[in-house]
Design a protein that fits this description.
One of its GO terms (biological process) is glycogen biosynthetic process. With about 375 residues, the chain is an alpha/beta fold. It folds into two domains: about 260 residues, Spore Coat Polysaccharide Biosynthesis Protein SpsA, Chain A (Alpha-Beta Complex); about 80 residues, UDP N-Acetylglucosamine Acyltransferase, domain 1, CATH 2.160.10. It contains nine helices and 28 strands. The N and C termini lie far apart (about 50 Å).
Length: about 375
């Protein structure tokens, strides 16, 4: 959709996933067997026909750049528009901008050259299948200055405590934005705003020495913006802790949850050409999700194995997440464990965590 410009803002996303964010930003953390967290918001923008997307990053983005490449899986390897990975630029000694405002101010060319009239802003911590075309149509229909995408959850979970919450009237007009712990209407960190208004608000925030666009321009709303709330009803997971990462990952073994995330519009990711998973005669796999390239000779139950995992004969894996190209040696027992990519367990080890506190090994660990 040429009316829209995509902004994926990772500036305020902290490295909250312990060992999983030692070597990468949160947006690059693997999820659901073969994806990265950023794939879901990128795919939402692709499915909405957005042709120009800026990814604003500050820290630990080498892994992210390697994953995104030229943007081809999301149809963003194009001559006009495409995907732009935009770290902040400090070359201007007169620049007084800070926080994510620094990104927007120092990359004004991205906004001016983009043909779209509206900005779709999102992060990577909220995994959704939001229909951004429908959000845009709602925004136009409401005549709002800003439209926030919100999800009303049935049950409050620990990861929701730090989320921004939204109150709105029966017509969808926002009357309050806050962080009350017991409130169930969650802001998904997606909003739509007219581009020129967005850039005016960026400049106003900089002139007032502010650092956080959403907080200082929308939550505080000193300009009296008309703010609408769009009620999103699809799949939603907040990934802002190891507990939320593990629990939401395990929930994907539930057929209903998996289909809600993947059945409709496609989710794209970096393309890797690998053979299907191979099951040896000794393999025993139950209620698990296995990606391409796996070779399994042991027992796997209630677990998620990413691409290229090798499970030797006699190994036992239960309730665990095993990332790309890990090797699990003979006689190894894993229960409630998360192994980052390229971990090698030579054999005979026993690693046991708890569902509320899984045992984690960082990338490239060898035992």
């Amino acid at each position: 959709m040429k009316s829209l410009i995509g902004v994926i803002n990772l500036d305020h996303e902290l490295e909250e996933l312990k060992e999983l964010t030692y070597f990468r930003c949160g947006a690059a953390v693997p999820y659901a067997g073969r994806y990265r967290l950023i794939d879901f918001v990128l795919s939402n923008m692709m499915n909405a026909g957005i042709e120009s997307i800026g990814v604003f990053v500050r820290r630990k983005y080498r892994s992210l750049m390697d994953h995104l490449g030229d943007g081809k899986p999301w149809d963003l390897d194009r001559k006009h528009g495409g995907m732009f990975i935009l770290p902040p630029d400090w070359n201007d000694p007169t620049d007084t901008s800070q926080g994510d405002l620094q990104h927007f101010h120092n990359n004004l060319d991205f906004f001016h050259r983009g043909a779209g009239q509206y900005v779709v802003h999102a992060g990577s911590r909220h995994v959704t299948k939001a229909d951004l075309q429908d959000v845009y149509k709602y925004h136009i229909r409401k005549g709002a200055d800003v439209t926030l995408v919100c999800k009303k959850v049935d049950q409050l979970l620990p990861e929701h405590e730090s989320c921004v919450k939204v109150d709105h009237d029966e017509d969808g007009n926002v009357v309050d934005i806050h962080q009350c712990a017991d409130h169930t209407n969650i802001y998904t960190e997606i909003f739509i705003m007219e581009k020129e208004l967005f850039l005016k608000q960026v400049q106003r925030c900089i002139e007032h020495g502010e650092t956080h666009f959403f907080r200082d321009a929308i939550l505080k709303n000193p300009s009296g913006l008309k703010i609408a709330a769009y009620a999103y009803e699809g799949y939603h997971a907040v990934i802002n802790s190891i507990d939320s990462y593990y629990r939401n990952s395990m929930d994907l073994l539930n057929t209903g949850q998996y289909e809600q995330l993947f059945k409709e519009d496609p989710v794209q990711t970096k393309i890797k050409y690998e053979a299907p998973a191979k099951y040896l005669e000794s393999a025993d796999v139950k209620h698990s999700l296995l990606a391409n390239g796996c070779i399994v000779g042991g027992e796997v139950q209630d677990s998620i194995l990413f691409r290229g995992v090798h499970v030797a004969k006699g190994a036992k894996i239960k309730g665990s997440i095993i990332m790309q190209k890990c090797y699990i040696g003979e006689g190894t027992v894993l229960e409630n464990v998360i192994l980052d990519k390229d971990v090698k367990l030579t054999g005979g080890q026993t690693l046991i965590g708890a569902p509320s506190n899984p045992y984690i090994l960082a990338k490239s660990t060898i035992i």
